[in-house]
Design brief:
Blueprint: H1 16-34, H2 44-56, E1 59-64, E2 75-80, E3 85-89, H3 100-127, E4 133-136, H4 147-160, H5 163-174, E5 181-183, E6 187-193, E7 196-202, H6 205-216, H7 225-235, E8 238-240
Parallel strand pairs: 1-3, 5-8
Antiparallel strand pairs: 2-3, 2-4, 6-7
Helix pairs in contact: 1-4, 3-4, 6-7
Length: about 260
Amino acid sequence: MIERRNDRIKPLPLPMRQIIRKAEALTHRYAEELGIGALLGMNIDIMYERVIYPDFGIVIHEDQDLGFDLHGSKILGEFDPISNTVYIDEELHPRNGDPRRTFTLSHEVGGHAILQGDWLRSELKRLKCNRRIVTTEQLLDLETENVLERQANMFAAHMAAPTWLMNHWIERIFKINRRQFRYIGPGQYCLDVRGHSHFHTVADYTDLCRRISFYLKPFFGGLSVEALTYRIAETGWVVDHTESQFRLRRTARRSEFVGV
């Protein structure tokens, strides 16, 4: 028997720009709560205590053994829409210092609970069932075809590393004032960090983004270098000049200068 579309949870019908706006709005709420202290950087635990729990009532349990899914992938987090509770695997407990914790919390608490929570509860009520939303290492991949996971990933990325704060720290650390980093191919690059030159051998475009992310990492609450690398590329601070369409062409027009 073919499963009908109405018998499944439907994805939240939100365009990408609206998801980003909702995530960034949450970080502005965080900034309003902390005042100038927000410019020191993002901290998912402080955001939870000062904004998320008071405004949304989401409960977090981080001492869970969530096991593995049917494909053998480690389950990192689960969201129970009915009880509005997020469960995080004990492998990501704060004492372990695992950089996946920040993004997983942002994904579950922000992407699933805040962005999709009300929608999922209405869908589960429609289907008359109780179901958790599960995050595995595989589903954390940004290329996943699962719409709910893609939405949660997008929300998490902008919640953990909002564009306004990235712009603030890139401009402050590298003193470039809206100028862009230029990638012109593999080789040695000099990054001016707070007035001091730092030389790096760069393999490719992503590697240049990664080098920049190392200097930003302290201000984004333990977010992994990989996640920051993606956000740096996404914000357009690094421009790939190896893909330029600019061409010099010789035409049949006669030059007015002798010898040209």
